[in-house]
Design brief:
Blueprint lengths: L1 H6 L5 E4 L4 E3 L8 E6 L2 E5 L2 E6 L5 E2 L1 H6 L6 E4 L3 E6 L2 H6 L2 H29 L8 H10 L18
Antiparallel strand pairs: 1-8, 2-7, 3-6, 3-8, 4-5, 4-7
Helix pairs in contact: 4-5
């Protein structure tokens, strides 16, 4: 994502202290952030789901592209420097190289998820709780819109 840093060098930089929130799950920010240095913690429903450490990584692009509220909370895990585009949509459409990098990043993430789910299915077969993997993979492959709703159809209070 070094190219993203080169393409966004004109944007202002903001420093975040450890624990400082960049994006709040359910919020509606029109902007996009680009990580210059440091580490970010991503949580969803209060559970840590990812750490972002790669310079040039975008934050907030999914909400802009889908036109939905922010899907996770992102906070500085350590001191971070980030670039900020107040109009995320304008940034994403300002240069075909930018949206290409975004598309590649999203494709990499989708490839990781589908490979991981397929690997779980291979390793554990139809173990309790994993029998739904073929349905999840099928839905991922066929999802063309409208925007998927968050969550799942599983029992929120299973007996296990």
């Amino acid at each position: 994502m070094d190219d993203m840093l080169a393409l966004t060098r004109h944007l202002p930089e903001i420093e975040y202290a450890p624990g400082e929130v960049v994006i709040t799950e359910g919020g509606e920010s029109p902007g996009v952030w680009i990580l210059v240095s440091g580490s970010l913690r991503v949580t969803k429903n209060g559970k840590e789901v990812n750490t972002v450490e790669q310079p040039g990584a975008l934050i907030g692009e999914m909400s802009i592209l889908l036109g939905v509220p922010d899907s996770a909370t992102v906070e500085a895990a350590e001191r971070c420097v980030m670039r900020y585009a107040t109009d995320g949509e304008a940034l994403l459409t300002s240069d075909p190289r930018i949206i290409h990098l975004v598309a590649v990043g999203l494709a990499e993430r989708l490839n990781f998820v589908t490979t991981y789910l397929a690997d779980l299915k291979t390793q554990y077969g139809d173990a309790p709780g994993l029998a739904m993997i073929p349905d999840v993979l099928r839905q991922l492959a066929q999802q063309q819109g409208p925007t998927a709703l968050p969550g799942s159809a599983r029992d929120p209070n299973p007996d296990y």
